[in-house]
Amino acid sequence: MIAGYRLAYRLGLTPWEWAGRSIGAQLAALLDSQDASVGPPGKALDAGCGTGAHTIELARRGWRVTGIDAVPLAVARARARAEEAGVEATFMLGDVTELEKSVGRGYRFVLDIGCFHGLTAGERVDYADEVTRITEPGASLLMFAFGPGRRGPLPRGTDRAEVERTFAGWRMISDVADTDALPPAVLRANPRWFHLARS
Fold first, then answer.
1. Closest CA to 27 of 117, 144, 177, 116
2. Where would a tag sit more exposed on the chain, N or C end, judged by fewer CB atoms within 10 A?
3. What does the alpha-carbon distance between residue 41 and residue 175 come to, in Å, rounded to a whole number?
4. Element (H, E) at 136
5. What percent of the chain has pLDDT over 70?
6. Which among 58, 67, 51 has a CA at the least distance from the CA of 19?
7. Which biological process annotations from GO are given for this protein (predicted)?
8. Predicted model pTM
9. What's the DSSP call for residue 118?
C-alpha cells in the first residue's frame, strides 16, 4: 500500500484528501462530544496523518500533537500546512508498525483516520502492539475505518470484531456508523468510527 500512496501523491490522485474534509467535520463533532472521555489535551498522535489536516485540528484544540506518515511528499505538505495555519505540530516520516522508535512514548490520544484499515493482517498486529507500547494506561484511540470488502487497490477495511481482537488490552467504548455529510463513494464502503480506551 505504501508504494501506491507514494505514487498517488506524486500524481496528485488523492481522493482521501477530498473526502477528508467531510470526515474532518465529523471528527470535530466527535471530539466535542467525547471531551469527557478523551480528557483534557495532552500528548496526541495522528497515525497516517497524510497532509496534516486532522493533526492541525488537534493542535488547534491544544493537543501537543505529532503526525506520522510513510509518504515524504505528504509529510512535507503537512509541515507547510501547519506553518500556514500558525499551529505547532510535529510531523515525522516513519512506519506505523515501528512507532516507538519514531515518535517515542507517553501518548494519551491516538487518532487513526484510514490507517489501520489499509494495513496487511501482519502489519495490523504490529501496529496495534506499537500503539499500546507508546500510549499511557487510560489512553483513547479514535479510528475511522471502512467496513470489510474487496475494492481493488483501495483499503480492504475492517470490522469491530477484528479491531477488538487486534487491540487486545483495549476496551471498545463506541462503534458508530456516522454517515452525515459523507460523499456517496465513502458511504458505499460502510464507514465506522471506533473509539477504544486502553486498560
1. 144
2. C
3. 23
4. strand 135-145
5. 79
6. 51
7. methylation
8. 0.86
9. G
Residue with cell 477484528: 162
Which amino acid appears at position 90 of this protein? T
The bridge status of strand 192-198 relative to strand 107-113 is unpaired
Residue 182 DSSP SS3: coil
Domains detected in the chain: 2-198 (3.40.50.150)
**CA–CA dist 159, 146 (Å, integer):** 8
- The amino acid sitting at 98 is E
Given a cut of 60, is residue 173 above it in pLDDT?
yes
Confidence (pLDDT) at 4:
53
CB-CB contact of 109 with 139 (8 Å): yes
Q: What is the pLDDT of residues 85-136, one digit of tens each?
A: 999 999 999 999 999 999 999 999 999 998 999 899 999 999 999 999 999 9
Residue 36 has pLDDT above 50, yes or no: no
Q: Could you give the dihedral angle defined by the CA atoms of residues 111, 2, 51 and 183, in that order, rounded to the nearest 10 degrees? A: -70
Asked if residues 53 and 20 have their Cβ atoms less than 8 Å apart, the reply is yes
Q: Three-state SS for 195?
A: strand
